[in-house]
Amino acid sequence: MSVKAAMDNVSLALSVSDEIPPSPGEANALGRHRLPVQASPELIVPSAGEGLNRTADSAAAQTGALELASQALTGGEILRRLLSPVLAESDTGRSADKLLARFGTLGAVLSADAMQLGDVVGNAVVDHLQITYLALQRALREQIQDRPIIGSWPALEEYAAIKLRYSSDEKLLALFLDRGNGLIHEECMEQGAFDQTPRYCREIVRRALELHAHAVALAHNHPAGDPVPSRADVEITKRIIVVLSNLEIVLHDHAVVGRNTIVSMRSMHLI
């Protein structure tokens, strides 16, 4: 299998591995926030009910062979194809089944760490899955690198989802942006329970100054799956806004990644 074909399989996995109905919390949250939002001059944010308002051109690009294939292939079938370059044909099905039994979805398999994967499959499969996942992250990063965020919300949403959705730990991701809203640097600022607010607030500010960032966008995940921002999430974000604004640095938005959905604090009028 070619590298391009393998990457097509991974991209296809994103469209079929997460077809899980929203949790009641997600459904209720999205139902409460279906109001359109006036975008700020610096950044276009998605309406909570409308998602990212993809253009007709991008919607058309989503159609075709990949869309048709996504309707026919399961996550398990895609995983078996993905494993075919490193395993004998007779072993791909068994290994794919073991991985899905352990991790649940294709996305969770791809984002598992080497130690977790090594409990289920051999080193060759571990290396293949990890380099495939790394290549996918790099490709998505290249979609937003050197482009204004104002025109790249779909790529940014997809990138944040891949980085954060399957993490078993809560992580805070910061995107540092230049004056034209181009991505300068992306960094995980905190992992685990966010109980050291002054420390990582200072770290975000320090990195923004070091990188000469004009703006920052934040994203973090809720491992339980409900994307509704907590009161603590909102209060911490407001504190970060105050600190950054004193240095004339803009916080564009704080996105929360749930199981199936990403919500925007700004589009929900929380910041």
Compose a concise summary of this entry:
With 271 residues, this protein is of the alpha+beta class. It has twelve helices and five strands. The chain has a five-stranded mixed sheet, with helices on both faces.
General description of the model:
- This protein has 271 residues and is an alpha+beta fold.
- It has two domains: 96 residues, no CATH class; 136 residues, 3-Layer(aba) Sandwich (Cytidine Deaminase, domain 2).
- The protein has twelve helices and five strands.
- It has a five-stranded mixed β-sheet with strand order 2-1-3-4-5, with helices on both faces.
- The longest helix is centred in the middle third of the chain and has 22 residues.
- It is elongated, with a radius of gyration of 19 Å.
- It starts with a helix and ends in a 7-residue tail after the last strand.
- About 20% of the residues have low confidence.
Task: Lay out the secondary structure.
Layout lengths: L2 H14 L7 H9 L23 H7 L2 H8 L2 H9 L5 H15 L2 H6 L2 H5 L4 H22 L8 H12 L6 E7 L5 E9 L5 H14 L4 E7 L9 H15 L4 E8 L4 E3 L7
Parallel strand pairs: 3-4
Antiparallel strand pairs: 1-2, 1-3, 4-5
Supply the number of helical segments: 12
CATH architecture assignment of the largest domain: 3-Layer(aba) Sandwich
> SSE string, helix = H, strand = E?
HHHHHHHHHHEEHEHEE
Look at the structure and give the CATH class of the largest domain. Alpha Beta
Query: Helix amount, in percent?
Result: 40-55%
Terminal CA distance reads 47 Å
Rg estimate, integer Å:
19 Å
How many extended strands?
A: 5
Q: Sum up the overall morphology in one term.
A: elongated
**Which sequence of strands runs across the widest sheet?**
2-1-3-4-5
SS-based structural class? alpha+beta
The largest β sheet comes out as: 5 strands, mixed
Q: Report the CATH topology name of the largest domain.
A: Cytidine Deaminase, domain 2
- Specify the CATH homologous superfamily of the largest domain: Cytidine Deaminase, domain 2
Unreliable stretches: 9-42, 44-63
* Total domain count: 2
β-strand percent reads 5-15%
